[in-house]
Amino acid sequence: MHVSAPASSANLGPGFDCLALALDLPFELSDSPAHHALDGQGWHVVESTHPAAVAYVAAGGNADAQLSWRSPIPPGRGLGFSGAARVAGAYLALLTSGAAPTAAQQQAFGVAANLEGHADNAAASTWGGFTVAAGEQALSLMVPEGLEILVWWPEKSTSTNASRSVLAPTLSREAAAFSIARSSLWVAAIATGDLSKLRVACEDQVHQNERLLARPDSAEVLQELLANQQVIAAWLSGSGPTVAALMPVGSSADLLAPKLFESGRSRVLAVSVTGVNLVSSTSNT
């Protein structure tokens, strides 16, 4: 079998560990011998410590199974590489065991969220679209059409655990209320289609400011994006260092030209409207 799960941009500013957008950047996983034979040609052998393999075994898969993976998602950049890998691994194991696709999806989310330690990336990679996760519960909303996401990341990666270590151990009531309100505004804006509220909705006092202080390169790019009026919203993706911006389709070309973006890599992505899925039970492509 050959399955695919999308990348994700999580937090979206104030939605710490609960909000995410699925991105059309896939993590693919296969148990086909044909794919395993293509090691070095886009496909890679899955080592036992790989997050996809760990999730595969956690979901009941055979620890001795030979798996292969390929993905353009850059690891350690805040685009949900491990979340997508874990969702794909658990989903493949569950399908192999005979679970129905819908049941396999729900169970894969639980396995991946547990391994991740937070559910935001796992929810987006499982269901696609704009997702809200709260513990074992998650919902996906359709994102209005005509939008694309510009993502930029520097060459140096960021460890999620290291990034969390810079966060304050406690929050004031005012800071919590500030971010809860804006996280809620994200949900309302997507649900109603009133995207004019999203710039304000990306403001945060829980984690984003501290993480940006540790990454001045990302902070500079975020400010550059927010200075452009075509940008609907912009935020630090996950724990960073990637910065993401929501824009109308076709408007990102002008932003790819400035010299500022030469300091890293950038891509323009669509929101993935589907989550983890079975690509083929027999495909060798």
Task: Please tell me about this protein's structure.
- The chain has 285 residues and is α+β, with helices and mostly antiparallel strands.
- The chain has two domains: 2-142, Ribosomal Protein S5, domain 2, CATH 3.30.230; 147-269, 2-Layer Sandwich (Alpha-Beta Plaits), CATH 3.30.70.
- Helices cover 35% and strands 22% of the residues.
- It contains ten helices and eleven strands.
- The chain has helices at residues 33-36, 51-58, 81-96, 101-116, 120-127, 160-164, 173-192, 198-201, 208-214, 216-226, and strands at residues 2-10, 19-30, 44-45, 68-70, 130-134, 137-141, 147-154, 233-236, 243-248, 264-269, 277-280.
- The strands form two sheets. Strands 1, 2, 3, 4, 5, 6 and 11 form a seven-stranded antiparallel sheet that branches.
- A hairpin with a 6-residue loop joins strand 8 (233-236) and strand 9.
- The longest helix is centred in the middle third of the chain and has 20 residues, at 173-192.
List keywords for this structure.
single chain; 285 residues; alpha+beta; Ribosomal Protein S5, domain 2; Alpha-Beta Plaits; 2 domains; seven-stranded antiparallel sheet; four-stranded antiparallel sheet; 10 helices; globular
